[in-house]
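Before a colleague's protein record goes any further, I have to sign it off. Would you go through it and say whether the fold makes sense for this chain? Take the sequence as given and treat only the tokens as open to question. The record follows directly below this note.
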Amino acid sequence: MAKKLPLKQRYAALTRDVHWEPSYVDPEKVFPYTSFEGIKIHDWSKWEDPFRLTVDAYHKYQAEKDKRLYAVLDGFAQSQGHLTLSDARYLNAMKLFIQGVTPLEYAAHRHFAFLARYLNGAGPRFAALCQSLDELRHTQTEIHTLSIYNKYYPGFHNWNRMHDRVWYLSVPKSFFDDAISAGPFEFLIAISFSFEYLLTNLLFVPFMSGASFNGDLPSMTFGFSAQSDESRHMTLGLEAIKFLLEQDEGNVPIIQDWIDKWFWRGYRVAALVAAMTDYMLPKKFMSWKEAFELYFEEQMLGGLFPDLAFYGIKPPRHVEHAIGEKDILSHQVYWVLYQFSFAASFTTTVPEPYELDWLSSQYPDTFDRFYRPLWDKARKIQENGGRFFFKGLPQLCQTCQIPMAFTEPGDPTTICQRHTVYNGERFDFCSDGCQWVFEREPEKFVQAWMPVHQIYQGNCGGPTVPEVLAWYGIQDGDNGEYLGSVEHTNWQRWHATAPVGS
């Protein structure tokens, strides 16, 4: 009678032992994508698998998590749980989430499935397969969770169409388009290391805790359900970089170059998270500055990079600029969103007095001096029956595609503007980091799909704001000012008619 194999041996038998070397086909034709980047791999068997799950164990584990999640969703929906939210303003953050993050999960699913076919080693192929399944599950659970709110509030529909068209969503979309169009090893550094390992905690940990603080039990549940997967993804990112660094000394400068690029690209995407964290949660949990200091400065710069120094890896280029922006980043980004929310699928409002005081306490060196006066002026305009919108189209950074709102390092009063002339055409950037990324591979970034340029060229439905919004898929009531909006009106009406104690 055959003995049951121990888990480790069973795992190896079901993953590594099913690999074979092709004998009748040139290996370069079977795996054509892992040679052109300059990375040298001498022994694929040295890959240490971070997942260590067989397929049957993986699906059993994930099914248990899904059962718990969907039980929460059912209970929340049946008990009219949307009425327990702190304020309908909170939903604008979740609109940004489903439009900006959920499509990225699906893009990651597709490309990790690609790596599961085209990486040479059996170990990284299986790890990529597991992560591909994770990302598809995240996509599905996020859609199901947020579809609850689509029954009651505007702005949750057409999220996938909006991701491909709306101006502020071009920021995360361009990040993933850049990563997917790179080689397989650069994609691993871009997503598994720079995004998943260095920056993902800035989204999932403080923001999902903020969801709990604001009565959003479904988002908190799917967030922490996803975060248990993210911990494996972070391990994959760390394993990927150590594996590549240990395989050949010649890989070190290539990896360093990718870390420099993808840290800055990922950090600029996280600027949207900064605005969501500080301004879009009616009940505050943790400021962007606190999260950045804990999850990036302390854990990554203070913990990870000293370990990577053993391999010759240094902290990312331009990291000092990111540290210098932690006191001002969220304010600058939300001010842009406030000015342009007439062309967005969410509403914005002037922060309440208690929120201004909280921001002042979190940012004592900058907020009262530079940003409270802006909000005082906006409130005065609102009290006089008006609403401040920027009536025009902003200049965008060619690399990150965020409107040019960031300021010079060390000077929050002066807009930072850099430019490069390439093939006789001028390209503008919001920072030294974005300029460096462009100049590193300009032939790639000159092809960027720039929303403002496309509007001027007539490729976005027409020349007027209503035509552009219709092309975006934005409906009346999705956008603009929160006060008097559809979500505000619905919130007040349902609370007025809800049973006592709801």
